Every structure is written in C-alpha cells, then in structure tokens.
Amino acid sequence: MFNRFCYALLIICISISSVAQKTDRKLEDKLRQLTADFKGDVGIYIKQLTTGKTVAIQADSIFPTASMVKIPILIGIMDKLNKKELSYHQPLIYKDSLLYEGEDILGSFKDGETIQLAKIMMLMMTTSDNTASLWLQSLAGTGSRINELMAQLGLEHTRVNSRTPGRKDNQQIYGWGQTTPREMVTLMEMIYRGQVIDKAASDQMLRIMGRNFWDEEAISVHPPTVFIASKNGAVNASRSETLLVMAPKGPYIFSIITKNQQDQSWEPENEGWVLARKVAALLWEKYGK
C-alpha cells in the first residue's frame, strides 16, 4: 500500500512539475501587470507551439464569444462540405427573410439574388457579416449540430447559444456564443495541426481565417509579411481576439477575451482594444522577433 501511495504521489508531483516548467513565468508576470488595472474581467491564454510554453490568466472562465462564434459555425459548414451535403461553390439564393439589420454587405442584396456558398463563408469570416453568419449557422444544421461538433472535439464550454434550443439562459448571459480563452486556443491549435475534420478542411479554414478585414487591433502590431489566422469580436461590454501568428521564431496562438467592461465605447481607444494591442505587442516582442 505504501509503495503504491508513493508511486501515485510521484506521478502527481511529476505532472505538477511539468505544468510549472511549461508556464512562462516572466511573461505571465508582465501580463498580470498589464491587466491589473483593467476595469472589467479579462481572460488570456497563450501557447508557443514550438516550446509548449503557456500562460493562463482566467483562461478557464467562460466569456462571450461575440463574433468569435463564427469559427465554430465555419467548422459546422466544413462538416457539411466533408459529408457532400453542401458544395463549396454551390449557388444559393438570398431571401430578404435572412436579413439581420446592420451594416452587412449581404444584407444589401436584393431578394432572389444568387451568391456562392464560398462567398458567404468569406463574408462571415473576413468582414464578420452577421447576415451571412446566421444563414450559415442554419445551413450547418442549427446551433445544436455545431455544439455537437464542439463536444466531439473535447471542448466543454464553447457553444452556440443564439437560435439554439435549450440555450436561452446561456444566451441571456453570454449572447450569441460562449467560450474560454483556453478552448479558443485549443481549437485554433487543432485547426493548425490539421485535426479538425481532416487536414484539407483545416488548411482551408486557416486560409479563410487569414483574410481578416478587421485588422486594426491585435493584428495591427505585427508586420504585414507574417501570416496570421484570426477572428475577433465585440459587443458592448466585451472585446475578444484569437490569433495564430506564424512568427519566424515559431508559431504561437493567443486568445484575449473581456467581459463586464466599464468602457463600452466603440472607438479604437476602447480599453479592451487597447489591452489587446498591448498584449499582442508584448507577445510579438517575446515570441515573434
């Protein structure tokens, strides 16, 4: 009994030591200094893929996805493409009933106009078009099917809430979708490693996510010569970004998400966006150059 106990204790100690060794303590200290005075809640998870070094600050807390929910929606569509239930260049007919009021490009289409599925996907991920995104969510087989896919990938908290049966209470708290910083990084890493559906589908998703129109926040601190796959989002009291940065020194992924922000302005100097740029700059200085 004593030997078994000692062996179990040794395994636990080794596991704890391994986690400690993979935590970038100096970077964590700098990030905690950056976030100390933030007026709201902030979660950050970072992983340098070559070394396995990580930093976690409220990384397992649940936050609103805002438009980052469009990554799970994209996976839902790729699942349909993989099953041959949709085709990438398939023509679809836009209907006025699909309109989600806002400044979206797709919403300016006339009833009955034709558009390829591939272009709807581009509008969702590149310009974050909400009309396109909700159309794709329905084409993916509703939020429930997308949530099944997230569960199959081992993601416990990343879920679509809007227009999804049984998710009304979650929607009232988190909005369209919910996630954690750790799960967003995990999902992006699985895509990077070709583990979502298959390598071809994962590669295609990276290409699509590499064309982000909204590049004035965290993306803006990086040289334009560096490939970045990303998705960001914003609602009144939350700002969020998840980036895969293919840096010369090795790729790294980070996700920063806020909630309960006091600053609910829609200007570039919103406290959440300022923090995202500062975090991105610190990471580029550490892992990028």
UniProtKB/TrEMBL annotation:
It is an enzyme of class 3 (hydrolase). Its EC number is 3.5.2.6. It catalyses: a beta-lactam + H2O = a substituted beta-amino acid. Residues 43-258 form the Beta-lactamase class A catalytic domain. Keywords: Hydrolase, Signal. GO terms for molecular function: hydrolase activity. SUPFAM superfamilies: beta-lactamase/transpeptidase-like. Residues 1-22 form the signal peptide. Belongs to the class-A beta-lactamase family. This is beta-lactamase.
